Amino acid sequence: LALETALRNTVESGEGLEVHYQPLVDRDSGEVQGAEALLRWHHPEFGQVSPGTFIPLAERSGLILPLGEWVMQRVAAQLMAWRQAGLSPPRVAVNLSARQFWQRGLVERVAELFEAYQLPPGQIGFELTESVLLDHQQEAVELLHGLRELGCRIAIDDFGTGYSSLSYLQDLPLTTLKIDRRFIQRLTGEESQRRGSAAIVAAVTGLAQELGLRVVAEGVETEAQLAALSRYPVTLIQGYLTGRPVDAETFAGRYLQAG
Ligand code: G
Ligand code: G
Ligand code: MN
Ligand code: NA
Hints:
Blueprint: H1 2-13, E1 17-26, E2 32-43, E3 47-49, H2 51-61, H3 64-84, E4 91-95, H4 98-101, H5 106-116, E5 124-129, H6 130-134, H7 137-149, E6 154-159, H8 168-171, E7 176-179, H9 181-187, H10 191-211, E8 214-218, H11 223-228, E9 236-238, E10 246-247, H12 248-255
Parallel strand pairs: 2-4, 4-5, 5-6, 6-7, 7-8, 8-9
Antiparallel strand pairs: 1-2, 1-9, 1-10, 2-3
Bound molecules: guanosine-5'-monophosphate (2 copies), manganese (II) ion (MN) and sodium ion.
């Protein structure tokens, strides 16, 4: 409860919140093709609180709505600032919880942000988990179409960990599958798990290729994992090997060039 009160105060003031950015790197060219926005919270008393702790708390308490609004606005403002400084930031993906996705007026709000911060279509995209979309599939299709009309990329996060019927992949207007890091890590893990994980990665990447979806391999930490992925049609690499999440200034210094 103390933590919830602290989070409530933080959301009101914005103090102690920061968005970090992790690069998504094109597997073949090595170019930074995107970034994921990841929220960080530092509290004077509780210290650095992990998103694994405060995001679920925010979801339960409803604070995820103002918190999510803060993230989107922060990202939009950052992208505008980079563009005004003559930099060419890549598309940035924002994670959306169920309640954020289903909140009234999401598509209109995103359109407003693009307009207010003078962003090109699709400069901000979204990551959702399978369960969010499967609950009310027809409504999800309509919402996603609205976002796609704004040019937004839509990724399924943690793919392979939910209880997905695969049929939804055909029905939803998605652009990207993100293979959960547990499969990537098992590729080079215990002997007993390698074959199974390789089969899953082969199936997911093959499926994505046939459906015209981009594939992100998440949680790539080692050269061995990168090498193990080389036989599969993976588009993008995201992980500590190619770049940890870093603050905006560090991200710009490392990855953004003028022009
Ligand atoms: O940054 P880290 O890998 O610790 O994130 C842990 C979890 O928190 C991930 O599932 C990530 O999707 C989620 N997360 C991080 N930032 C945000 C955010 O801005 N909004 C939502 N809804 N989830 C986030
Ligand atoms: O659920 P989601 O994919 O949004 O979670 C992203 C989380 O994964 C972030 O908290 C980020 O810090 C973390 N992450 C990013 N790259 C790596 C990695 O290479 N290894 C591990 N263990 N975690 C990672
Ligand atoms: Mn994510
Ligand atoms: Na993920």
